[in-house]
Amino acid sequence: MTELATTGTDLPRLRELNSLSIVRALRDQPPSTVTELSQRTGLSRPAVDVIAQGLVADGWATVLEPGANSAVGRPARRYQFRATAGHVLGIDVGVHKILALLSDLDGNIVHSVRQSVAADAPPADRLAELDNVISACLTGAGKAPADIWAVTVAVTGAVDASGRTSFFTPLPGWGDVDLTGHLASRFACPVQVENDCKLAAVAERWQGAASDANDIVYVLAGMRTGAGLILDGVLRRGYGGAAGEIGALKHVRWLNAPAHLQNCPGVPDTVGPDDAAAWVFNAAREGDKAARTAVSRYVKDLAVGAAALVLALDPQVVILGGGFSRSADLILNALRQELQRLCLRMPEVRASTLGADSVALGALKLSLNEVDDRLFSAGLSAPVAPRRK
Amino acid sequence: MTELATTGTDLPRLRELNSLSIVRALRDQPPSTVTELSQRTGLSRPAVDVIAQGLVADGWATVLEPGANSAVGRPARRYQFRATAGHVLGIDVGVHKILALLSDLDGNIVHSVRQSVAADAPPADRLAELDNVISACLTGAGKAPADIWAVTVAVTGAVDASGRTSFFTPLPGWGDVDLTGHLASRFACPVQVENDCKLAAVAERWQGAASDANDIVYVLAGMRTGAGLILDGVLRRGYGGAAGEIGALKHVRWLNAPAHLQNCPGVPDTVGPDDAAAWVFNAAREGDKAARTAVSRYVKDLAVGAAALVLALDPQVVILGGGFSRSADLILNALRQELQRLCLRMPEVRASTLGADSVALGALKLSLNEVDDRLFSAGLSAPVAPRRK
DNA sequence: CCGATTTTGTAAAGATCAAAGCGTATTAGG
DNA sequence: CCTAATACGCTTTGATCTTTACAAAATCGG
């Protein structure tokens, strides 16, 4: 059941609700006239007028005085959501790189900073690098920490309620790092830490291959294999934040699936372990027999875990993401065939369209969601950076 | 993000919202005074007063004139939600029996009818039996079809959007039955058809072993093995209604798991195939070596599928339901051990507390949810049976 | 170039609703 | 029997939205 507020609504609250309606009608729209807003919200024109003026006074909207007007009649003032009232951060702390995105409330990316990190860097160094990237991103955009309304950081491994990756993480020593606490000392706004697969899934639904779907299984296919789940349009974290970790089940052969590619016979010694998979995909594309069987075996193993998720959740679409999605041409059809064989109801299978930045993008989106949730649940005062509760 | 209505709110709508607040505050509570309601909703006492009188006039509430009053002061009139304004049906069409429950809007069961059916009865006979049970239940409660506000029917097998069990069902010929259509000719109210495992899960959350949890994996352990998923307090159907069908994956050994019990050496010929499992559990309880290993093997296979669901969804609690949950004393600890071995984060594992009626109870709850959703989204006119859209 | 038309902006009036305040009814306890 | 406490019902007040009306600003047609 929808958990509506059980509290009654008085007149000031009514104004607040209607203000929120107007804000909603303003967002993700070109600058709108009062008449348009009136039609969109069902409120009368005078009511919209006073509310819009109030929003401008509070800083939530800006006015565009009428200029050239193609239509007949008196040209209308236009109101616009002031997306620059606040900004949010989305950060991907990956194994090899750190990427920070800073955007306004509409999700327009204002500034981004990328910095490569050694895969075996100790936690302290990685945290220091993270701090540098954040600083660079803030100064690059001309913002102070107090201007940021929400921060989301992506890390690898299942994230528990405290923001730690205590179950497992490929980053050495990272399981004990209190990332939330570390960032909380710098930002007064809400700080979230979330798993990278989950955030990539969010990004694909936001701007990627799954923008039309509400039930999504995102499979991260790379040197690690993971999954992110979106059901009914909402990211599912699980009770302890470990949803999607189907790869931990031995009967599902995700753990060793990439080994088929790494250990494929014929890979030259000159190719490093991280590039072996790319070499195998290329070789398979050119017809190399051993490479083709390696890819085939990899997909078969990948499909078992994907099928488990599909059978468990019956999604509309399965998104193939991660580093190997660059070779989707070799994987997608085989994956479809395997899923068809294993599943009851066949979902669509699509390749990611966002590439490697999807994780940071998903983090950004989660920050935006956080802001929206506060905005639309708490009420509408003047725009200021929210503080953690 | 919460998908609030984008429409503005005017004064009549405000009254409606506040009326709904009062209805909420009235439900599942002992008869309440105006002052109590005022405190519960935050509305002023006069406002609550006029709204409550309106609810009485519309038929949503009844007045209890003041009688003996323990407290000091003038005794207050008490208002009570009129749960008998409407009634709903929850029906379980099982393999061996049909069970119909009829309740008022508070979920108080007014009448129930149970009728056994031959497992191999053809669909036409089963439908006729269903019609009889419904008629008996209605007349037994003194109700007409027009008095029923929602109907939910539980069937075995994954239910698609049309209410058919086209993927699979153990009932012979049932895959083609258009149950929704069949019932729609009799009831003008909304009719839902849903999978039995899913409904059992709903029931356990409503009144059973999982009433404190929002993320639940319900495992139906019986001659068939199935699952129902509740995430964030909401039943998950999946895009095509086939969520939870992890048993279809061969790597998960649910299909053949009960065979360990049925084919256990030592079962006397006098025991039929349906009772073999019960015999084995009893024998195991008394120390029979072969029976114990059979149970152990069964649990090991059951745990693989349960672990797949737990890893995929990371629930708070796993509920063991179905016929075999009567032998939870033999299963639960072994299941816990296996899950501990297989999973990342260990959920609680509990046995069902509702028994065989849970499916019909879950169907009833879904009907109640349907009514609530309409009530709290559409608005509050005089109480009449809702019609299908 | 000027008036008709259309659309916008704004003001005033009317309606609805909730809050606040106040007098009255009813009961308990001394 | 009388006082205090509690609850009820009514009236007044204030806030909000809608309707209606009218002035302002632009285009269109002659």
TrEMBL record, chains A, B:
It comes from the Bacteria. Residues 19-62 form the HTH iclR-type domain. InterPro entries: ATPase_NBD, ROK, Tscrpt_reg_IclR_N, WH-like_DNA-bd_sf, WH_DNA-bd_sf. Pfam families: HTH_IclR (PF09339), ROK (PF00480). GO terms for molecular function: DNA binding. GO terms for biological process: regulation of DNA-templated transcription. Belongs to the ROK (NagC/XylR) family. This is Transcriptional regulator. It comes from Catellatospora bangladeshensis.
